[in-house]
Amino acid sequence: MSNKEVKAALKSARDAIRNKEYKEALKHCKAVLKQEKTNYNAWVFIGLAAAELEQPDQAKGAYKKAIELEPNQLLAWQGLANLYEKSNQTDVRGDLADVYQKLLQLYESGDKQKWCDVCNKLVELYHQENKYLEVAETWQKLIQMKQEEGAEKAELHQLWKKMIQLLKDSTQNRDNKTEQSLLSAFEHAVNSADTVPGEDHQNLYKDFIQCLSKFPHETPRLEKACHDMMALYPTDSYPLEVLCLHFVQSGTLSEEALHCFSRLLEMDASSGPGIIGFGIKCLQEKKYKEAVKSLTEGLQKTSQCPAAWHYLAEAQMKIHKHRDAVLCCNQALEALGTPEGPSLRWKNLILQLKAEALVKIADANAAEEAIKALEQIVDASSDPVVLAIRGQAYLNKGLMDQASKISQELLLSHPDLAESHALEGFIHYSQKNYEQAERSFLNAIERKAETAEYHQYLGLTYWFMSDETKKDKGKALTQFLKAAKLDSYLGSVFCYLGNYYRDIAGDKSRARGCYKKAFELDGTDEESGTAAVDLSVELGDMDTALSILNEVTEKASTGTAKWAWLHRGLYYLRTGQPSQAVADLQAALRADPKDSNCWESLGEAYLSRGSYSTALKSFRKASELNPGLVYSIYKAAAVEQILGKYENAIATYQQILKKTEDYVPALKG
């Protein structure tokens, strides 16, 4: 076949392809290749025809052969790109990317529009594969090309915005280069906007700041972006809110942070981050109740802030609301998700605080939960304070050997740590080794004199050690007073002071004040509530007694606060108000249906009201629950007598006299 014939055959092949006669085209190409195996165009036409006849493998082979012959010719590369684009197989994507890369090289010096088209396709392909770094690098080349061609500012602005769209999902990948490309795209987009200030620009700035807030190491850039946006949009609270939350999460509260909090509240008094910031300021100033109030309110509006939950838990601990503190720690851990970097430090702090709160709750279940929390702390075994908390948890759980082992290890490795000596003290105290406990608590106080709990336990040690140390003003009383001075929210220590003034000093008025304070601090402390009421009655101050009882019963849910209902019921009974007495004593019995004395009092109330049948039932119930209650048996007989059931009454009187021959009321009956 002469050169002329080869050209004619190739022309026929091209015409056949144009007329969609692909098999005909293949014949012409094969004829050419018989004569001229290295004919580039013949291989390209075979690729085209085979692709149309849905013979992808033959098409691919033909294109690759053409590329081998002339690697820098466009046609075969274009054909291969078309072939891969039509393929449904995912495994060709990598090959397609390589083809696009080659096409970019070939178009670079010539057709700029086609170069841009291929560039767009390559970026789309990388994006589908979540190859964000390649997306960033390729798109930046496109922008560079446009800049070199002298593109308008508006077109470049749109390209930077498109780059943000392409990379915005990459923040989970944690690839530093991609991250920097995304932030750079934001900076260019923000700086190339046409209308400034304007709504689009404002929203773009918000997105930029939100993006920066996801990267803990970009603090200077975040602060700068917030300040820049505040200067442009002084009435928009968003940058200030982000800045405030950033300061909260950083855990260090500078003058600048406090200034931001107050500025935000001036701008928007209902702003969650602003209220949280104010709560943290209160916590710093030791205004713990205000801190709890503000942090709770702020977190209702901005709940996904682990550090704020931690601060709230801290404030709850300061006022000894340990169960509330545990709930806040759980919320903090939930908001934290799976932490890394700086968040890991927060996780450890939260878990430690949770364990401390659970140890203070002081029951076996809470101790078990505390041990589990401590096990999740990274490098917990190297932190002596965490070890001391674990020792206390073991002690609360009754695992004395494990607690003692930790205590001995800590005293050897950290003899200067107050917590080492305190743990030893708690162990001795629980075993009633009061002399050794005294020594341990004195050692702890020597190293950390500002801890109220150490003084409280030293006071309790003296209280139980002997009558002398109990009565010695310089011992138990002094320590209780020091504890109360160091921590005015420590309800239990005011209860112990009440015990001292009532039982040792005989000062009922001062004792009543201490019990009242203890009960105000801890509404679940029945011992203090009861003592405050009893002493008020003894001091003839019924108003105070009733105000305490009314406050408790108003808040009490059904089946709780038996002591308060009972006390108030008995007061009504004494003061001739039987209907109120009946209602309160019934409420007390809902809390404890097996209290025979309460049934007896209820019988008295019914009797005073003239409800004889129900009085009879109440007295019978009391004597059923406690057959030794002679008075209830006698009152049942007396009511039967009133009701005219004489035979029953006589039988009951005789029954009493069998047991107690000289029980005068029964003889009279």
TrEMBL record:
Gene3D superfamilies for this protein: Tetratricopeptide repeat domain
Keyword field contains Ribonucleoprotein: no
Residue stretches in coiled coil: 3-39
Pfam families, sorted: TPR_16 (PF13432), TPR_19 (PF14559)
Alphabetical UniProt keywords: Coiled coil, Repeat, TPR repeat
UniProt repeat feature TPR, residue ranges: 40-73, 562-595, 596-629
PANTHER family reported for this sequence: SUPERKILLER 3 PROTEIN-RELATED, SUPERKILLER COMPLEX PROTEIN 3
Protein name, as recorded: TTC37 protein
Annotated organism of origin: Burhinus bistriatus
